[in-house]
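EI: anyone free to look at a 352-residue chain?
SC: sure, send it
EI:
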Amino acid sequence: MKQTGKLNVALVAGASGIVGSQLINTLLHHEWQVVGLSRQSSASTDNVTTVNVDLLNAKQSAQALKPLSQVTHIFYSAWLNAANWTEMVEPNVTMLRNLVSNMERIAPLKTVSLMQGYKVYGAHLGPFKTPARENDPGVPGAEFNAAQLRWLNDAQQGKAWHWNALRPGVVGSAVPGNVMNLALSLALYASLCKTEGLPFRFPGSQQNWHSIVDHTDAALLAEATLWAATAPEARNQAYNVNNGDIWRWSELWPVIAHWFGLECAPPVRLSFQQLFIDYRTTWRDLAERHQLQERDILQLNNGQFADFVFGWDYDMFGDGSKLRRAGFTHYRATDEMFLSLFARFREARIIP
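SC: here you go
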């Protein structure tokens, strides 16, 4: 690793995701040196050194990470999918363990920032207590976010470094090609409705239509993550991170429809994943006509995460006040976040 006069050297696991990519931009803006980890073969850029590593492989991880002896902060947002929640635990804990165990031996590590989510509150299982708070009792059963934090807390005992855990709501991002990007799913769906002369029909149930969901702007999340990594108050603490406002879909959906010049229609259960398959040829024709960036809609987004979100028949929100009381005071209006993201998609020629 090249010598640097900068005091802070970030190692970002999950660098290409909707969380990690924005975090890298924020770190660079604040003049950090940044190293990104990737399972896939990726080239370094002028600003970011990329290390290709399979964190599931302990021996290969030790070898690949060995040159990174100046890293001061780990930002961990990588995750590996599996067939069920139980099977997700072991590989995801293993990847975190292989990274942290190697880095604490070779580098002057100060902080490990772990990206989590509301699954630690049981949000993936069904209705749960809302607003979720960081001191809520744990939920029994297999869940990798909670298992990672248990390991991290145990590993930190008696060490000079500290951990923090960030728990965002649904993240709003301008990054295409990521299944977790709900804003892009909505933009693609709205564009198809516009092309087909259809109203912007809500794809969930009546319960989902009236439910509360909190959202987290990716840029706000990145700033909160940076704050937590450097603030003494955040040592060994978990924080919910949301925009700071509360919306029901019944309020937010008409705002989105208006931006696209569409009429709303009553809720009907729809699958974004199936719609994007059904309209794959339509999107290809649309993309050619408007000279869009990507002609294959499934390369932009496959709709799976959107189907997950619109399958919630219950409230999904947390109390973000602990973070603000501790010293991070940024807010973001969720309606403005969505409209800004749609404008960025259009400017980048992702949507017409």
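EI: The chain has two domains: 9-170+216-241, 175-215+246-317+327-347.
SC: 👍
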